[in-house]
Amino acid sequence: MKYPNTNIHPDAKIAKNVTIEPFATIYGDVEIGEGTWIAANVVIMDGARIGKNCKIYPGAVISGDPQDLKYKGEKTLTIIGDNTTIREFATINKGTDDKMQTSVGNNVLVMAYVHIAHDCIVGDNCVLVNGVQLAGHVEVEEFAIIGGTSAVLQFVKIGAHAMIAGGSLVRKDVPPYIRAGREPLSYAGINIVGLRRRGFDANKTAELREIYRLIYTAGLNTKEALKQIEALEPSSKEKNQIVEFIQNAKKGIIKSGNEDASIGI
Predict the structure, then answer these.
(1) Between the CA atoms of 136, 137, 141 and 147, what dihedral angle is there, to the nearest 10 degrees?
(2) In the predicted model, is pLDDT for residue 1 greater than 80?
(3) In whole angstroms, what is the distance from residue 230 CA to residue 199 CA?
(4) Percent of the chain with pLDDT over 70
(5) How many CB atoms are closer than 10 A to CB 129?
(6) Which pLDDT band, with edges at 50, 70 and 90, does 256 fall under?
(7) What is the pLDDT at residue 215?
(8) What span, in angstroms and rounded, lies between the C-alpha atoms of 1 and 3?
(9) pLDDT value at position 152?
């Protein structure tokens, strides 16, 4: 359904059962999947590829030009997966010639006033709480939660199932499966509540605790910790994922901290 007073370019590719509320603006190089709802005063600019059954709330701007002085108008994309919700006044910029796209996965919740800059990759089932700011080239893996008003510096990577406290400044990579809080941002234990909710059993959480004990509290340097982790039996997907994440951490990983610290989103 397209209400009166919408501004929809005739070249836009809009599937069946899409609702577009008054005063929304849809540019020409746009594709919107079936069942998506576009609220009033949303602006969807060239390069947007929006999946099925998404909800985009008033004032959001999707696929605006990158806020990057190196951007010279190259044709790039903003890709939004299925069943993703983008709340009021969130902004998601398209990519540059680095990755040629910014992407947000399936079942993601992007709360109000979030900014996702050019060339970011946000995985499936993530939550970006109100006011989160992602600089360019940030990667957020699946099921990660970033607390409100946190700022993530460019090229930082946040691992799967990680939870970051509200108001954090994320300068270094945050490994998978952990909680992080305080200033400077530090390890605060594994994300036990989130992992249990997602079906991780006691044996798996015990394995993760032992891995992060070696990394953060055993008095080992990173090279020594990784060597001991690789020797742990049995091998597992999670262990290999953590080792690979740390080995590839371009900015290094966050430091150790008090595992008993209470953090919130």
Answers:
(1) -20
(2) no
(3) 24
(4) 96
(5) 20
(6) confident
(7) 96
(8) 6
(9) 98
Distance CA 258, CA 263 (A): 11
Distance CA 28, CA 208 (A): 48
Mean pLDDT, all residues of the chain:
95
Q: Among 68, 95, 118, 123, which one carries the catalytic annotation?
A: 118
Our answer to whether residue 9 is catalytic in this structure is no
Burial (Cβ within 10 Å: 0-12, 13-18, ≥19) of residue 45: buried
pLDDT for residue 233: 85
118 is catalytic: yes
- In sequence order, what DSSP letters do the residues of 162-219 get, joined into one string? -EE-TT-EE-SBB-TTEEEETTTTEEEEE-HHHHHHTT--HHHHHHHHHHHHHHHTSS
Amino acid at 87: R
Which of 95, 131, 136, 257 does the annotation list as catalytic?
Answer: 136
Check if 64 is active-site. no
Token pair for 210: 């032992």
pTM above 0.90, yes or no: yes
